[in-house]
């Protein structure tokens, strides 16, 4: 189908975009790369009266390191993140994750801010923000506010963003020495939305985790920071530790059933990913035994 | 405000000036305003890849780009790509390997395959599969398409005599 009729405004600055959003409220939608918005509009799932195009705002584009923070502008495209030397050094988890985001032609257009604001619970980058302990920088007419990624996502396609606000950037702490990351997902075909996926960021010292953040996607109405990670951190690692963590994971995840997978299947796959993750990050392949899906 | 918006861009090396409604996507603009019907419209939701074109050097889904977003941009369609001779060898390989039957997906396949060969001159079959994974073909079963792209990559890698 074709999108229904709407008006179009090319924002000349963030201030101009905020003014338009202030004037039109929830009748307006921001257009960044359009790779989620345009399908939704073509399917008539969305019919905004006004599109405010921020895709050309250079002030929202780019990747920069300042101090101990890596800042990525909202309209930075997936292809730019995947090819960035700064990202490869300071947040390599994102490079791995983006290889799973749709297909090359989509990644040439889709943007980080667009993906986060869209907040599909099965998509990769929102979970990465949890794993990387990102801060989401939001601009409104009253000023700027900064929200931890853990608190940014509130439901299916829902975030703390109000219709008058604009996601301008994300800030990521630089990966520390001894940092390690893991990314895997189960999908029917390469590029499809994940059935279950896991993005993890860790600090490993002497064969044990001194930090571990586990962010699951496809297992609920938003990306989930699994508290089961606490069972694995700060202790000498024994096989029973992993079993404890799996039990804790089972207890805290509340996945939904859909056409792709049942609830028990998602619980199973989540545990498979946890075992593979721990085995990979600690370089203990035997821990992944029995973790064939 | 749902009135036509002025638009200027470069399509296949020629300057184009038009007035378009905001809701018009790039694929329909190319087909209906410029009669460049090699860009095919399949799913209109970014899944099938039949509408793949080059926008400022990168392949994109023309069904997921509004024409008004291409102000000042450079667009190359399958017509431009084939007329320039850039993919003559790839087209010949598709024909030789029977890498098309109905041909509906072929323009998008050629755009995506040439994009891969530009960025990665010696891709293996897995890399070819992955790069074309966003382009659907309902006839060939894909094997012949992978063959054609692989053959072209190998031929381009050979020193010219």
Mind sketching the topology for me?
The complex is a heterodimer of chains A (293) and B (161).
Chain A lengths: L6 E4 L3 H11 L3 E4 L5 H6 L7 E4 L9 E4 L2 E5 L4 H5 L2 H6 L1 H7 L5 H4 L4 H7 L5 H8 L3 E6 L2 E6 H4 E3 L2 E2 L6 E8 L5 E8 L9 E10 L2 E10 L6 E2 L13 H14 L10 H19 L12
Parallel strand pairs in A: 1-3, 2-3
Antiparallel strand pairs in A: 4-5, 5-10, 6-7, 6-10, 8-9, 11-12, 12-13, 13-14
Chain B lengths: L4 E7 L2 E7 L5 H8 L18 E4 L2 E4 L12 E3 L1 H6 L4 H9 L9 H14 L5 H7 L11 H15 L4
Parallel strand pairs in B: 1-5
Antiparallel strand pairs in B: 1-2, 3-4, 3-5
Helix pairs in contact in B: 3-6
In short:
By secondary structure, chain A is α+β, with helices and mostly antiparallel strands. In chain A, 31% of the residues lie in helices and 26% in strands.
Features:
heterodimer, A: 293 residues, alpha+beta, Uridine Diphospho-n-acetylenolpyruvylglucosamine Reductase, domain 2, Uridine Diphospho-n-acetylenolpyruvylglucosamine Reductase, domain 3, Enolase-like, domain 1, 3 domains, 5-stranded antiparallel beta sheet, 4-stranded antiparallel beta sheet, 11 helices, B: 161 residues, Ubiquitin-like (UB roll), DNA polymerase, domain 1, 2 domains, 5-stranded mixed beta sheet, 6 helices, 5 strands, globular
3D structure, described in words:
The complex is a heterodimer of chains A (293) and B (161). With 293 residues, chain A is α+β, with helices and mostly antiparallel strands. Chain A folds into three domains: 47 residues, Uridine Diphospho-n-acetylenolpyruvylglucosamine Reductase, domain 2; 112 residues, 2-Layer Sandwich (Uridine Diphospho-n-acetylenolpyruvylglucosamine Reductase, domain 3); 110 residues, CO dehydrogenase flavoprotein, C-terminal domain (Enolase-like, domain 1), CATH 3.30.390. Helix content of chain A is 31%, strand content 26%. Chain A is built from eleven helices and 14 strands. In chain A, the strands form four sheets. Chain A has a five-stranded antiparallel sheet with strand order 4-5-10-6-7. In chain A, helix 10 packs antiparallel against helix 11. The model of chain A has no long low-confidence stretch (mean pLDDT 95). Chain B is α+β, with helices and mostly antiparallel strands. Chain B is globular. Chain B folds into two domains: 77 residues, Beta-grasp domain (Ubiquitin-like (UB roll)), CATH 3.10.20; 73 residues, DNA polymerase, domain 1, CATH 1.10.150.120. Chain B is built from six helices and five strands. The longest helix of chain B is centred in the C-terminal third of the chain and has 15 residues. In chain B, 47% of the residues are buried. Classes of the chains: A alpha+beta (293), B alpha+beta (161). The interface between A and B is medium-sized, with 32 and 34 residues.
């Amino acid at each position: 189908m074709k999108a229904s009729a709407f008006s179009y405004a090319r924002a000349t600055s963030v201030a101009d975009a905020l003014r338009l959003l202030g004037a039109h409220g929830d009748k307006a939608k921001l257009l960044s790369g359009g790779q989620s918005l345009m399908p939704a509009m073509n399917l008539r799932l969305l019919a905004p009266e006004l599109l405010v195009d921020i895709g050309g705002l250079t002030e929202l584009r780019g990747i920069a390191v300042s101090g101990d923070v890596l800042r990525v502008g909202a309209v930075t495209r997936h292809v730019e993140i995947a090819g960035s030397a700064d990202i490869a050094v300071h947040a390599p988890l994102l490079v791995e994750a983006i290889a799973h985001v749709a297909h090359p032609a989509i990644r040439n257009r889709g943007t980080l801010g667009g993906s986060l604001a869209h907040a599909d619970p099965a998509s990769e980058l929102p979970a990465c923000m949890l794993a990387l302990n990102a801060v989401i920088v939001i601009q409104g007419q009253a000023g700027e506010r900064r929200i931890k990624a853990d608190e940014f996502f509130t439901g299916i396609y829902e975030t703390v963003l109000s219709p008058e606000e604009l996601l301008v950037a994300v800030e990521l702490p630089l990966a520390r020495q001894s940092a390690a990351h893991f990314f895997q997902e189960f999908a029917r075909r390469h590029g499809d939305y994940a059935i279950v996926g896991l993005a993890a960021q860790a600090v490993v010292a002497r064969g044990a985790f001194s930090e571990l953040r586990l962010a699951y996607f496809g297992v609920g109405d938003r990306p989930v920071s699994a508290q089961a990670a606490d069972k694995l951190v700060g202790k000498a690692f024994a096989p029973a530790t992993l079993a404890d963590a799996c039990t804790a994971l089972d207890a805290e995840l509340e996945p939904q059933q859909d056409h792709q997978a049942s609830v028990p299947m998602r619980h199973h796959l989540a545990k498979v990913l946890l075992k593979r993750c721990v085995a990979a990050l600690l370089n203990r392949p035997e821990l992944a035994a029995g973790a064939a899906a | 405000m749902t009135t036509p918006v002025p638009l200027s861009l470069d399509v296949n090396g020629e300057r184009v000036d038009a007035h378009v409604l905001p809701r018009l996507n790039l694929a329909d603009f190319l087909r209906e305003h410029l009669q460049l019907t090699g860009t095919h419209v399949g799913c209109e939701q970014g899944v099938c890849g039949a509408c793949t074109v080059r926008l400022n050097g990168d392949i994109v889904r023309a069904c997921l780009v509004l024409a008004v977003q291409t102000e000042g941009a450079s667009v190359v369609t399958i017509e431009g790509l084939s007329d320039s001779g850039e993919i003559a060898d790839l087209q010949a390989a598709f024909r030789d390997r029977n890498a098309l039957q109905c041909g509906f997906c072929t323009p998008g396949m050629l755009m995506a395959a040439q994009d891969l060969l530009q960025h990665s001159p010696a891709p293996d079959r897995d890399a070819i599969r992955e790069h074309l994974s966003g382009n659907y073909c309902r006839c060939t079963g894909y094997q012949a398409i992978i063959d054609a792209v692989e053959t072209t990559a190998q031929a381009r890698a050979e020193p010219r005599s």
